[in-house]
Amino acid sequence: MKALSLLVIATLTFSTVSMAEIHGAATKEVSEVKANIFTQNNGMVYIQVENPADSKVRIAIKDNAGVLLHGETVKKTKMLKRFDISNLPAGTYSYEVNSADYSVMKKIEKK
């Protein structure tokens, strides 16, 4: 009887650990932010962001001297931001998208 009780306890403990591991693996989500920065000939710059974890994402636009021209923090799963740069003076501008685990920067020259 004592051996049977120990077997039941060992089985329940093993089952609980196994279910916890399975449950943890099943609920693990991919949290990688992806961003695409691109231009069109109409004087527009587009920043497309996919944020599956719905974490905070920082968007920044800086001039060649590093002066911040635009900065915002967003928390959306998907978005497309449009920036009109037609009125900016000629020069090189950096567009940055950052989150806790992701960073991308692209320099765009406006003529």
Automatic annotation (TrEMBL):
Domain of life of the native organism: Bacteria
Keyword Signal: yes
Boundaries of every Secretion system C-terminal sorting domain copy: 42-108
Membrane-spanning intervals of the chain: none
Extent of the signal sequence: 1-20
Pfam families in the record: Por_Secre_tail
InterPro entries on file: Secre_tail
Keywords: Signal
The protein's name in its UniProt record: Por secretion system C-terminal sorting domain-containing protein
Native species: Reichenbachiella faecimaris
UniProt lineage: Bacteria, Pseudomonadati, Bacteroidota, Cytophagia, Cytophagales
